[in-house]
Amino acid sequence: MGTVVLHNIEKWYGQTLACTNINLHIEDGQFFTFLGPSGCGKTTLLRLIAGFIRPDSGSIILNDVNITSLEPEKRNVGMVFQNYALFPFMTVIENIEYGLKVQKRSTSQIKEKAERYLSMVGLEGLGGRPVSQLSGGEQQRVALARSLAIEPKVLLLDEPLSNLDARLRDNMRSELKRLQTQLGITTIFVTHDQTEALTMSDQLAVFNEGKSIQTGTPEEIYQKPKDSFVAQFIGETNLLSLHSCDNENDSLLINSILAGIHNDTGRFISIRPQAIRISAESADCDHSFAGVVENKRYNGLTTELSVRVDNLLFRSIRLNSESEHYTPSVGQNVFVNFSANDLHILER
Ligand SMILES: Nc1ncnc2c1ncn2[C@@H]1O[C@H](COP(=O)(O)OP(=O)(O)O)[C@@H](O)[C@H]1O
Ligand SMILES: [Mg+2]
User: Fold this and answer.
1) Whose CA is nearest to atom 14 of ligand 1?
2) Domain count of the chain?
3) pLDDT at residue 246 above 70?
4) Which of 20, 35, 44 to mutate to test the pocket of ligand 1 (most atoms within 8 A of CB)?
5) 38 lines ligand 1 (CB under 6 A)
6) C-beta of residue 242 within 8 angstroms of C-beta of residue 267
7) Do 228 and 188 share a structural domain?
8) Ligand 1 contact via 48 beta carbon (within 6 Å)
9) Residue 43 CB–ligand 1 contact under 6 Å
10) Looking at residue 91, what is its pLDDT?
11) Which domain holds residue 340?
């Protein structure tokens, strides 16, 4: 079992601040995701938890023990690196056995565990193959088996799926999640991919510029983003700025949207594209504006329309299977409709 608490963590590389003011609580058995754009400090945090680097301040607690200064091999934490970092001159089974040898397990235990985790990741029969002769997906599995074999209290995964092609990535997502659930191992998963984060996580923390901006379940983060960064990073959204209405038309439009909403501190309005309905005639709903279709994108499952209303562009997404689905052409005059319930006011 493994409960991880990060308390006020800060880390600098010379003049570069990698992360600051990080306070997170990762429960035993959770699948917890660090989500954020490149450079926001995700790998740094994993390396701090694994013990490869030390924080400048703050503490890391594993199962109520302060491990901030403990050597990596004494932490019982397994890590899968972004580039897998397999030992290229070793076979598959030698790679998996490596951590067990470091742990000085008995020969019979090493053999038994290496075989067990080899088959758990679906590589039975490939033990004797040099890792240099494996596909990317197979190398990924070896890296995972190598980390799992030491039966760590916490598994750290640094963008483990980012080097795989789309279909394989999709399969590995489900497989990884299934393995994690089956083993019940506390897992910290790093990704910049919102779909991965939303589909796999029990909890996720959204990072930007070295800070954890918001923590919650996928539903909480998607439905109640705390600020405009989170709203834009998790899922698509229409973001209307309330304070940069230089253009008179924008102000009129935004004032009309704002009429009836009592909020003095809001800086942005966010409307998800699936909440916006496009119609030929003005619809009977809270907000309905005349506009012109500027762009249309057919994706098989959905159609996306971008409709210009004065200086604002509204994006709408509809499932193509919907029976009353209306698909105007580019250049057509239409109405943009949404209900007041679908407006989210964000303070920054
Ligand atoms: N070894 C290092 N030396 C100097 N700067 C680094 C080093 N590692 C990371 N950084 C910097 O720290 C910040 C966070 O990096 P990183 O944790 O790798 O982000 P992420 O994994 O989210 O892409 C970035 O600005 C990066 O350039
Ligand atoms: Mg990284």
Assistant:
1) 41
2) 2
3) no
4) 44
5) yes
6) yes
7) yes
8) no
9) yes
10) 95
11) 238-346
Give dist(CA 15, CA 65) in Å, integer. 31
Model pTM? 0.89
**Cβ-proximal residues to 28 (8 Å cutoff; 6+ apart), any chain:** 1, 2, 3, 186
Residue 346 sits at φ, ψ, to 5 deg, of -115, 140
* Distance (Å, whole) CA 190 – CA 311: 38
Instruction: Based on the fold, state whether residues 190 and 300 are members of the same structural domain.
Output: no
Q: For residue 165, what pLDDT band results from cuts at 50, 70 and 90? A: confident
Cβ contacts of 103 within 8 Å, gap of 6 or more: 150
Please check whether residues 211 and 257 belong to one and the same domain: no
pLDDT for position 26: 98
Q: Greater confidence, 284 or 307?
A: 307
CA distances from 14 to 11, 18, 43, 210, 325 (A): 10, 10, 17, 15, 56
Query: For residue 43, how far is its CA from the centre of ligand 2 (angstroms)?
Result: 4
| Integer Cα distance of 38 and 187 in angstroms | 20
Measured CA to CA, the distance from residue 114 to residue 108 in angstroms comes to: 10
